[in-house]
Q: What sequence folds into this?
């Protein structure tokens, strides 16, 4: 299973850590075959193999190593997977090592060790803060030259190009108490809540729960901390009917009202399935009655020249690599810390056989339990000193640090270089407040903690442990217990059962011994006159202390401006390690205290979520539901070519013997006009309206009158929005005094239903009317053409003579042996009927009509022919009802009732909407009788035709077709002043995008059977 | 995601609902013959209150009823909800 590779894990300890040395996993990094063990992350396995250089930086392509050990790590971003499985910008520290894992470094060309763009390090003097902004205010002719170079250098990683072969899913969960973070505080809180019978979800971004108890050498109740963690997890797991444990799951966002999003990296779990099995990631939608945040704290790096070399690492991360993974991140170490807790690094590193040469501490005369203990074991404690610079090798990283004496913010070189390949640094800890602050809480600055604390006005969510600014393991555990019990009570549950006991902690425990000397604020070590390196604040975005000073000098003095101008904290890590240092430096530059500067906005997500997890199942055919007509199958068998129209799959045309679309449509139109055609109109919106006030209701929502509509008759109606613009048109059939069947256009079915419900519920609750959508309840077929009555007669015993069933009449009874409503209405301009049957009979209706109509030359037609015939007839449709047209614009001005009120009436009276010069509906035919007039063309005057744009526009072409029934292309459009001004004149339909112009004559918009004799026949 | 208390169905996630502007009690539809200015204000002008607001919401993916929600536009806290005048009473509501 493991391929031959270099020396096996030269930096792996022989024992210790929470890894399984009995199994070996092989993986590849940049083509090299390497090994690790279960329990490793990719980061720990790389370090175990002595791989220190893992990435190139974003802007300068500087060589970078691993600085952190978790979500905070700003630099160890790699591309994972091979082939179609490719995920860029993944944190090596959060990636669980699996057998066969393939990873590559990023931002390097041609290779990580030799990167061409790193030469920009030489040119970096030309890439100061605001580089991109400044570049693009240079003369624009320079841009095409700079563009390709910038594009090659900029960006993080490469996007995958093939579809993602993995599955993702979303899941919704509800709980009484959500606990975020499974360190000591979170485990106590979860146990406390679980013992009261609460439904608990415990989520932690790490694959292995336990938080700092895994990373630090800690003893609880006289046993290793990990034993306590195992017991706690076992107890929680035993309550699996109430408790859900989510390892490798990052709660990425707090949304309103207890709603949390969590990204579950299933393949990073210790018990992950093999690639391709089950979903790779899952996005949890968690609704929690109460939440306990136990998200810990993030260590801050120190800012000094040359602080970005591989081998310069957060002190806590160095301890974690030693203690949790049994990995030595270096052989000879210096610790650089501005507070006592950093000293505990000394003992852990020494315990792992790493030589600790010195502790460098800016504070003068440091005394305290931990510093004294360090002195006692013979480590040089250089208090009153700082590291002013580093030196190293491009690929091997750190080789030495330069010692400076430090006093009152000033610094003098000592002239001593200390050889070291590991620098463990700590500038203090910042509570992880991201989730707390995402919904508007304002963290407050604490001068003692030298960090932001949670907003005291925004509790709950209950906060416990490091994220609450609490120090000392005992206090953290007790706070976790209290938070868990508070959450239970606040969730309305009773505190029952015995609370989990707080384990006893050794008084010798480093977190318990207390601090002798308070932490000193050290936001940046001054830059020596002859420094070899830059002072990086944000090593993901390559922002230096100088950049911040420059930005301030150039006037970007607020923290939000600073962020955008320098890119500080704008990387995928969102400045987890850099933000506080950055804004402290800005405060220094402004000469103001840190609280005056404030923080930038904490935004979701806490860490990046893959696009796959966001999309979940909603990809490919699951992207949206598909609606099919009840007669879909029968039409498919008849050779229909379907088209997606909104959610519907709708027959577009029915080609025969290799016909093109145009040929098929022409045949369908001509056959319908000559004999009879049939079309599925089940797609139309249908609303059933009942109640004594039904006609009054129609009167108030349509522009025309309805009171006079007799039972058994159908009427066309147009409804407006409140602003006077047309909303939709359709027909209403009066089935009884108090019963109306309304149709709407397909596209507006939902909108019209909502509009009517709003009117009834909000404006006129006194009307006794009920509405229900029946779109899915009815299947409908329109039969049209001179032989449609003959066809109908063949399939029904109802009297369908012109006298019994005149134009706009209706009848109810069996058709094709099916219960039916027959409306004599026409969209095509032909003698036509719409036959409605309950949806379940739709398939039978289509098949029986097809059979019965064969002798009459019946053809099925699709939406394309339907559209052609309505244009020839001059009926308006969606392209005309575009939200900007009034009844007058549509040529329907005479329908507007003056005798009643209706929605839209008042604002339709606005002078601008009454202007006779408004664009109004006209017909257009090509002057040459054959050139098509493209829909979307702009209408311009002939005298402007030869001019360059911009040209005064007179209107536009809304719909066009080849006009098979009239023998030449026809179009509908809107022209300023309408027919009254333009009838008989010529305009030009210009389509500048395609460079075409067609001279068109303006005619009335009824090309086919203008007097209506065919539909009335 | 906000939880909106539908007077008929109970609390449901915000994606079930659509927003419909201010409470009609505060923003009444003008009379048919009211001046154009009044109608223009009604259709086009909305206050954007900071803090407490009474808003019209519809349980679009549920019972489809419009009702009034009292909500803080800054904190998104929901103080309560009630049916519009003339709406059917929620089942079990005390009269
Ligand atoms: Zn409801």
A:
């Amino acid at each position: 299973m493991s391929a031959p590779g270099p020396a096996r894990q030269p930096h792996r300890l022989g024992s210790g850590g929470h890894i399984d040395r009995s199994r070996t996993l092989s993986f590849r990094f940049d083509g090299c075959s390497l090994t690790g063990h279960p329990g490793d992350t990719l980061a720990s396995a790389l370090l175990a193999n002595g791989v220190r250089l893992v990435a190139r930086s974003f802007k300068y392509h500087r060589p970078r190593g691993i600085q952190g050990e978790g979500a905070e790590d700003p630099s160890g971003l790699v591309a994972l997977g091979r082939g179609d499985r490719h995920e860029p910008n993944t944190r090596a520290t959060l990636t669980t090592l699996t057998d066969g894992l393939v990873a590559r470094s990023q931002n390097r060309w041609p290779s990580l060790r030799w990167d061409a763009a790193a030469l920009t390090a030489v040119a970096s003097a030309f890439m100061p803060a605001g580089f991109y902004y400044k570049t693009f205010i240079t003369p624009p002719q320079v841009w095409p030259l700079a563009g390709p170079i910038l594009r090659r250098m900029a960006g993080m990683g490469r996007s995958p190009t093939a579809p993602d072969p993995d599955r993702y899913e979303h899941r919704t969960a509800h709980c009484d108490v959500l606990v975020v973070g499974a360190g000591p505080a979170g485990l106590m809180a979860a146990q406390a809540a679980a013992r009261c019978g609460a439904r608990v979800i415990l989520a932690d971004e790490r694959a292995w729960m336990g938080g700092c108890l895994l990373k630090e050498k800690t003893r609880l109740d006289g046993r290793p901390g990990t034993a306590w963690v195992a017991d706690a997890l076992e107890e929680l797991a035993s309550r699996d009917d109430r408790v859900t444990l989510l390892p490798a799951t990052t709660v990425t966002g707090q949304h309103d009202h207890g709603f949390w999003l969590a990204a579950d990296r299933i393949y990073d779990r210790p018990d992950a399935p093999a690639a391709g099995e089950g979903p790779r990631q899952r996005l949890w939608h968690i609704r929690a009655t109460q939440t306990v945040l136990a998200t810990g704290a993030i260590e801050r790096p120190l800012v000094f020249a040359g602080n970005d070399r591989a081998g310069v690492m957060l002190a806590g991360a160095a301890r974690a690599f030693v203690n949790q993974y049994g990995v030595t991140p270096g052989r000879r170490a210096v610790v650089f810390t501005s507070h006592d807790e950093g000293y505990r690094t000394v003992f852990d590193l020494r315990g792992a056989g790493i030589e600790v040469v010195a502790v460098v501490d800016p504070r003068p005369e440091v005394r305290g339990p931990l510093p004294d203990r360090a002195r006692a074991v013979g480590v040089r404690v250089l208090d009153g000193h700082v590291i002013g610079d580093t030196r190293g090798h491009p690929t091997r990283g750190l080789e030495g640090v330069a010692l400076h004496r430090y006093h009152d913010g000033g610094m003098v070189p000592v002239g001593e270089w200390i050889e070291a390949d590991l620098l463990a640094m700590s500038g203090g800890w910042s509570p992880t407040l991201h989730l707390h602050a995402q919904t508007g809480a304002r963290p407050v600055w604490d001068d003692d903690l030298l960090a932001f604390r949670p907003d005291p006005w925004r509790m709950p969510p209950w906060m416990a442990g490091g994220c609450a600014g609490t120090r000392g393991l005992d206090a953290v555990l007790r706070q976790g217990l209290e938070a868990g019990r508070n959450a239970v009570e606040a969730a309305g549950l009773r505190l029952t059962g015995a609370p989990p006991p707080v384990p006893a902690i050794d008084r010798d425990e480093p977190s318990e011994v207390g601090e002798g000397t308070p932490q000193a604020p050290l936001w940046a070590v001054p830059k020596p006159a002859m420094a070899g390196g830059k002072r990086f604040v944000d090593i993901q975005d390559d922002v230096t202390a100088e950049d911040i000073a420059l930005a301030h000098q150039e006037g970007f003095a607020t923290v939000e401006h600073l962020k955008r101008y320098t890119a500080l904290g704008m990387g995928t890590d969102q400045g987890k390690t850099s933000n506080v240092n950055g804004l402290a430096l800005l405060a220094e530059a402004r000469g103001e205290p840190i609280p005056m500067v404030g923080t930038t906005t904490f935004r979701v997500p806490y860490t990046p979520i893959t696009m796959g997890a966001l999309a979940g199942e909603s990809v490919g055919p699951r992207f949206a539901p598909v609606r099919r007509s009840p007669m879909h199958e029968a039409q498919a068998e008849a050779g229909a070519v379907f088209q997606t129209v909104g959610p519907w799959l709708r027959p577009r045309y029915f080609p025969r013997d290799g016909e093109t679309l145009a040929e098929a449509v022409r045949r369908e139109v001509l056959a319908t006009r000559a004999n009879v055609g049939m079309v599925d109109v089940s797609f139309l919106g249908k609303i059933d309206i009942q109640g004594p006030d039904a006609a009054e209701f129609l009167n108030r929502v349509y522009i025309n009158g309805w009171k006079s509509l007799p039972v058994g008759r159908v009427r066309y109606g147009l409804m407006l929005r409140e602003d006077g613009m047309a909303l939709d048109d359709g027909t209403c059939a009066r089935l009884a005094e108090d019963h109306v069947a309304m149709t709407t256009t397909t596209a507006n079915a939902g909108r019209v239903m909502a509009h009517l419900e709003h009117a009834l519920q909000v404006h006129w609750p006194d009307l006794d009317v009920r509405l229900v959508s029946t779109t899915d309840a009815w299947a409908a077929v329109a039969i049209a053409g001179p032989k449609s009555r003959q066809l109908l007669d063949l399939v029904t015993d109802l009297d369908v003579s012109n006298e019994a069933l005149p134009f706009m009449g209706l009848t109810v009874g069996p058709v094709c042996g099916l219960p039916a409503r027959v409306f004599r209405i026409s969209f095509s301009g032909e003698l036509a009927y719409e036959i409605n049957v309950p949806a379940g009979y739709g398939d039978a209706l289509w098949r029986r009509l097809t059979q019965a109509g064969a002798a009459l030359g019946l053809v099925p037609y699709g939406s394309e022919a339907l559209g052609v015939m309505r244009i020839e007839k001059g009926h308006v449709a969606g392209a005309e009802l575009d939200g900007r047209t009034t009844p007058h614009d549509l040529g329907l001005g005479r329908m507007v009732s003056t005798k009643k009120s209706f929605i839209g009436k008042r604002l339709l009276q606005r002078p601008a909407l009454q202007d006779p010069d408004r664009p109004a509906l006209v017909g257009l035919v090509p002057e040459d009788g054959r050139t098509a007039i493209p829909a979307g063309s702009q209408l311009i005057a002939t005298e402007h035709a030869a001019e360059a744009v911009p040209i005064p526009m007179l209107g536009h072409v809304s719909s066009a077709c080849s006009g098979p029934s009239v023998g030449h292309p026809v179009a509908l459009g809107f022209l300023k002043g309408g027919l009254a001004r333009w009838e008989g004149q010529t305009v030009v339909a210009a389509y500048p995008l395609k460079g075409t112009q067609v001279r068109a004559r303006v005619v009335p918009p009824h090309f086919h059977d203008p007097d209506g004799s065919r539909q009335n026949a | 995601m906000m939880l909106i208390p539908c007077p008929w169905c109970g609390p449901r996630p915000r994606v079930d609902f659509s927003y419909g502007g201010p409470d009609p009690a505060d923003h009444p539809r003008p009379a048919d013959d009211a001046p154009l200015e009044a109608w223009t204000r009604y259709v086009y002008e909305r206050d954007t209150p900071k803090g407490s607001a009474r808003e019209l919401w519809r349980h679009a993916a549920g019972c489809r009823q419009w009702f009034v929600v009292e909500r803080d536009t800054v904190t998104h806290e929901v103080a309560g909800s009630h049916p519009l005048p003339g709406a059917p009473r929620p089942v079990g509501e005390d009269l």
In short: Chain A touches chain B through 25 residues (CB under 8 Å). The pocket of zinc ion is lined by residues B 6, 8-9, 59, 62-63, 65 (CB under 6 Å). The CA atoms of residues 640 and 654 of chain A lie 4 Å apart. Chain A is about 25% helix and 25% strand.
